[in-house]
Amino acid sequence: MVTIKHSISATVVDDGGALGVIELAHACGAGTEWVAQLVEVGVIEADDIEGPARQWRFRSGALRCALQARRLQRDFDIGLDAAALIIDLEREVRRLKALVQAQRPR
After folding, report:
1. Interatomic CA distance for residues 16 and 31, integer angstroms
2. pTM score, two decimals?
3. Residue 32, domain extent
4. Which of 32, 62, 66, 67 could tie 58 with a disulfide, CB 3.0–4.6 Å?
């Protein structure tokens, strides 16, 4: 009989909490340099960009965007610039859809 063991780690994030750069990188299975690149290309924003990267804090929405960028890179083998463009276009489509929905008569 073969026994297979799996280990799972999780990072709990709520809307009120903020993640540090190390926690964000860990949650995405990446390094802190990758997180810095996400900030550089505009995929995510740090609360205090003027401070050193190790002190950056990110809101929970940054985790969603970072995970989306990670999936795009993995699934389509694209660079962060392309991932940033796709994420930005998806945000714009959602914004425009909401605007159209709000303009419809009730």
Report:
1. 24
2. 0.77
3. 18-103
4. 62
